[in-house]
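Here we describe the complex-level prediction in full. Unlike the single-chain runs in Section 2.1, the two entities below were treated as one system.
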Amino acid sequence: MFKKLLCFTFCFCLVIGGIAMGAAEKPRYGGTLVFGRGGDSVGLDPAFETDGNSFMVCDNIYDQLVTYAEESTEIIPDLATKWEISPDGLTYTFHLRKGVKFHDGTDFNADAVVFSLGRQMKEKRVKFYRHKWEFPKDQPPPEYWLSMEMDKIIDSIEAVDDYTVVFHLRRPEAPFLADLGMDFASIVSPTAVLKYGPDFKSHPVGTGPFKFVKWVKDDKIILEANKDYWDGRPYLDRVIFRVIPDNSVRFLELKAGNIHICQFPNPEDIELAKKDPNLKLVSQPGMNIGYISFNHTKPLWQDKRIRKAIMYAINRKAIVDNIYYGLGTVAKNTIPPIMWGYNDCIIDYPYDPEMAKKLLKEAKFFEKLKEAGQTKITLWSMPVPRPYNPNGMKVGEAVQADLKKVGIDVELVTFEWGTYLKKQREQDPSMDLFQLGWTGDNGDPDNFLAILLDGYADPNVRTQWKNIEYHEIITRAKQISDKEERAKLYKRAQEIIHEEVPLINVAHSLVIWPMRKNVMNYKLHPTGSVFLDKVWLAK
Amino acid sequence: MLRFIANRLLSLVVTVFGISILVFLMIHLTPGDPAEMMLGERASKQALEELRERLGLNKPLYVQYGLFLSRLLRGDLGRALRTNEKITTEIAERFPATVELSIMAMIFAVTIGMTAGIVSATRQYSIFDYTSMFFSLVGVSMPIFWLGLILIIIFSLKLGWLPLSGRISYTVHLETITNFYIIDAILTRNWQALKDVLWHLILPSFTLSTIPMAIIARITRSSMLEVLRQDYIRTAMAKGLTPRIIHYKHALRNALIPIITVIGLQFGILLGGAILTETIFAWPGIGLWLLNAVYARDFNAVQGGTMLIATTFVTINMIVDILYAWINPKIRVS
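The structure predicted for the assembly as a whole is:
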């Protein structure tokens, strides 16, 4: 009872505090926000880009049919106000927002949607309603469209009238809606694409909250407010994305007040930012997973007791504290906690070397190792830092020491990055354990659980783990469109992962960005998108 | 003299051909599959195959080299894989920034370096000599990264005299014509921008100048000392000429020959893009571009960029050689 009361009081204070703060801080129009980042955009045509630095600018110039809610991966209306999905899951009908204009003054309509997505199709099975646009030739390959297998999902796109678009699918695909919220599915001005040709990527025209002004390569990109934005004009007058490659210098620029937000600071600088009265920190768990998996093609790793023993033997908290510098959370599931369908009921394996020894003995691990003609096992570790793992070799060393404590000798193996990925894909027989990870694309659990673990579905799946029950659940979850049902299936899938331990979930990295205190209402988004239309600068 | 120049040109062509082989092999014989590296974790087998096909990586090495060379002869460095932009365009956009920085750095290096060298030589074993030679040793061995950060912390953060990084303040508007900001500011008579641009140049160019400055100081000193020991200097002294005339008219002219060579070489190196300085000071030049190309595993850009930079370097070398011959007739004959 006391606990409940305490909780109630706390919540009450929060609400009152929130109201009080809200009253004191009324959003203010005007000002230029300078966003400091490590690298320049590659291009600004969202269909052909693959990197975060390009997408973060595109996020503010373009809209999609649907988008993600604040700080979550829930799908909400954007340029489409509502949609219907046929009972067989094969037809998606979108009703579009009326009266929206592109930055070049042309109208946004169903034909623009058909053009924006149709230009990425291999076989252009599209139907315009009013226009007869020719698609540009000699385009670079639309990497994201290809990697999301859109040609296998979409059969045809049709504009039924000015404000209705129908997508006919080849197979039921529940994550399809989430795919349409991604940057590659942004709606571009067909007139501008046809006018600029390949140069469209340096002259982007969308319907978004900011208009493109100027790009000085490797230096800055300037955007200005779209005063006629359909969702109300953004608070900021201008946004400048400045390239400052060195992390320390970028942080010094923030301290000096020349930039407002500093992306990807050095971990040491985060401590300094905490002490600086002019700065604040905004953080969020990243939509990623760093894991260690087994070579499931080898007989040695077929016994789940052995896999569990390895899980018990590794001190993951120590890894997160010492190698991630605390910029991460220990992962108990493969999908990150910010994602819908996350199974919070799962109780994580503790660090328990004694339990590990017991299980290894039970499963006769050392006898099996001898049978396989090995005296030690190998752990492949990444040669490069990745968003989900700051230092593969150091994590490897930590695991090596942990496994030594339960009597397993580990040899660390690494290759240059390209070779590493190639040999891992081939499930090289000399590989026992390997480290890798994943960064999510569209916020759908399928984007983690199928891609990483459903070995039956695709030979490209990195773990090549094959479990028929898991495969059936994942396949079923892909085909039904009811989100509640899907969430239940994904929760069950996570239970199977927990029980079978096809991989060891190590950590989700944490994204922490320091910014000036006067940057208000900036919210990090799990997809890594940078939305600035609701951000304002206090005096 | 014409024959000398023709000879030099011929050897330039041979050198550039050699460079093309080296650059090509350097990229293609390093271990690792470029397609795997470019696509990363998310690559499917199909996507990998398509990329290899598109990049021509499936063809035998000599065919790939042949294609590279034939494109090169037509002045086509290819397109950067990352941006799909022509490499020549990408470099042209960034070259002015590097040239501006390099020239400014050379101005610092030559004026300070030569002055220190001359004074040290004429006052050998004086306090000034020891101090300047000590600093020139420090200058050569100081890590640029560290020096850049220290200068930023002192002059920008603590004293607030100079800007931290970048080429121009975002609050200053400058209409760009040539992309050489100093020239653009003068052409458009935008004096506020000119001041801002010069202000931004000071720290990075000074940081960049430390190594060439130290080298120039040392070379000037030793070359001057050698000349000062010559008989004709003794004759000049015996004639009763003032030390000023002896040092600057008779000694310095003759001492200049090795100094010019060093200046030329150093300038060539700077034009290749100062990766560290450009990274620290967020200077959008060639060095930064090349570094990004390496990070992105854009082997077309690395190949094209290295080729161009190496060619610039040998060309400058050739120009220095010709200048050298012009100053010193003995070379022409040999």
